[in-house]
C-alpha cells in the first residue's frame, strides 16, 4: 500500500536520463513500470533509491555494459 519508485542518484558521466531519472510512484500490489535501457544510459554503474523509503536503506544499483565475449 506504500508508494514506491526508482530515483537514480548517481549516474556515469555522459548519461542523459532526462525523465527516466525518477520513475512514477506505483501504489498497487504487483504494479510495475518499465524503464527502457537505451542510448541515454551509457556503460557504467547507476545507483538508485526508492524515495519514500530511502531513510530505511531501500536502494540498489544497476550496471549497464556490453556482455563479455
What's this model, at a glance?
The chain is built from no helices and 3 strands. It has strands spanning 7-10, 44-49, 59-64.
Attribute tags:
69 residues, mainly beta, 3-stranded antiparallel sheet, 0% helix
Give an account of the 3D structure.
This protein has 69 residues and is mostly beta strands. It is 0% helix and 23% strand. The chain has strands at residues 7-10, 44-49, 59-64. A 3-stranded antiparallel β-sheet has the order 1-2-3, with no helix packed on it. The mean pLDDT is 89.
Structural class by secondary-structure content: mainly beta
Oligomer: single chain
Distance between the termini: 43 Å
Query: Helical proportion?
Result: under 10%
Instruction: Report strand order across the widest sheet.
Output: 1-2-3
Main beta sheet, described?
3 strands, antiparallel
Shape: globular
Average residue-wise pLDDT: 89
Say how many strands there are.
3
Spell the H/E element sequence.
EEE
Radius of gyration: 13 Å
Q: Report the uncertain regions.
A: none
In what range is the share of β-strand residues?
15-25%
The number of distinct helices, counting runs of at least 4 residues, comes to 0
Amino acid at each position: 500500500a506504500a508508494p514506491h519508485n526508482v530515483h537514480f542518484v548517481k549516474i556515469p558521466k555522459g548519461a542523459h536520463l532526462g525523465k527516466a531519472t525518477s520513475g512514477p510512484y506505483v501504489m498497487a500490489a504487483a504494479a510495475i513500470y518499465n524503464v527502457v535501457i537505451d542510448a541515454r544510459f551509457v556503460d557504467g554503474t547507476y545507483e538508485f533509491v526508492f524515495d519514500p523509503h530511502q531513510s530505511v536503506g531501500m536502494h540498489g544499483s544497476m550496471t549497464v555494459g556490453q556482455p563479455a565475449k
